[in-house]
Amino acid sequence: MRETSDSLVLVEVVPGVVVPFGELPAELELDLLDSWLAPTSDRARISAVLSSIGNTATVAGNLATAVASAQGLYRIGGVTQSLLNSGATLAVKDGANLGAVMLNGRVIAQARFVPVTAVSAAQAATALGPALAMVALQMQLSEITGLVKTNIALTSRVLAEIRIGQWAELMALVATIDQAIDRAREIKSVTTSEWEKIVGSETALIAQRRQYRLKVDKHLRQIHGVDATGRRAYLEANAEAIVFDANALLSSLKAWIGYQALHAARARESVDVKEARLVDVILRDTRAEFEVALPETKRLVNSLTRELRIIAELSGRETLSMPSKRRDSAAARHAAAHLLEAIEPLADVLRPPAPPLEAPAVVCAPESLGPEPYLRVLRWFLDDGETVRVLGFPEQLDALGPVSAILSGAKEKVAAARDKGAARTLVAITDRRIITAKASAFLEQGELRQDIPLDQVRYVRSAAAQDKGGRRTIDLITRDENIRWLFPTDVEGTQVDAFAAVLAESMMIPEVERKALQQRHLASIEAGG
Length: 529
Fold this sequence. Notes:
By secondary structure, the protein is α+β, with helices and mostly antiparallel strands. The chain has helices at about 40-60, 80-85, 115-120, 130-150, 155-160, 165-185, 190-200, 200-225, 230-235, 240-270, 275-315, 330-350, 370-380, 405, 410-420, 440-445, 495-505, 510-529; strands spanning about 10-15, 15-20, 30, 75, 90-95, 95-105, 105-115, 360-365, 390, 395, 425-430, 435-440, 450-455, 455-465, 470-480, 480-485.
């Protein structure tokens, strides 16, 4: 380990951006953020103020001589951010988190991390408001540029089928703004001649941005305004249009933010007080647009990607209603895989995919049934951070009616329902809900039967069924229905007990439901009295 004790101070000026003072380890995930948006006066002010903060609050020993010149603005990666945010494990000294920065199990530096809240609280930080706001704007531009670089690889087939003329018009605008940004970055200024070249593009940029915002909004309303079957049908029928519109919105947003960044930098260099106030307005409006458009695009891309991943995993698919009118399952999976290849790089950046599912500790399945194919499909139905606790493959009878029908001992009804409704069912209990599906339909079509939140579980009972086989059963009573599962005889009883025990953890009757039942009872007494 190199001798770096007290040799590094990282001052966070805006969330995700630091100014390092001292020796910067090459192993840290830091990307230099070229501060071309900030004029020379702003860059000097940032360095002077942060140096003052470092000298008075966080500097010790040999760092005092190095802090006079900041190394520049750096964007910190996710791993480094999580390390620096771990204030609970770092000692605090002079208002800074003090501790070792670890990488791959070894100490690479001793660092003091001054979070953005501490910088904001510093008396001198008030002078940095406009300058740091420009840094925040550049962070937005940098983020959206990174997404577009890893963006959807639109193939010639997709472009040939959908609005190739619109795409060419949008790309011309993007190229115009990109060229102006590259030249401004090279000379550290937005010249009058360069600004005059792009100032007439504002109306076209607004039109492009609004056009694709409306298209993305329409897609979101369609997929969130219908049930699961309708959502799947819409995603399949409009998959290629969604790919195109998501890509176009990101590209138009990138061009719009780039234009606003150039406008703000131009106004920031002016000595006119009104121009300085204009910078604040530009930053406010751009931030508002960014914070709405990007999450909408993420939701749309995530919905489509999840559906395409499910289709690609299915063992059989009768139809996929795409514009090309493919009808057989092999062609459907091929089409899904083709679009998935195009959209996956962007989807992985917006929402990194969860790792493959492993079989949980409790699996109630016949010896001849392997859970792996079901886990590959189930993976894409889970939300972020959701974990599978139980996997079972019982027979699920059709709904038996009200609770009294179960408890009254009406064996004839139970037997009739068993003969009519018995079918192998996939049951997955997660830490949030109970997912059920007809096993064959889930594996072939990706269709779910029920999605029951755990807070709707009211009662769970496990017993041996009164049939010749003596199979184990679990009765689940939820807020709205009654479910009976019968397990094959070759499923171990200990696993069924564990299945029931996990469900029983969620048994509860909310007080509001208890009171409603009591009030109904009192009302019936009063009516009969």
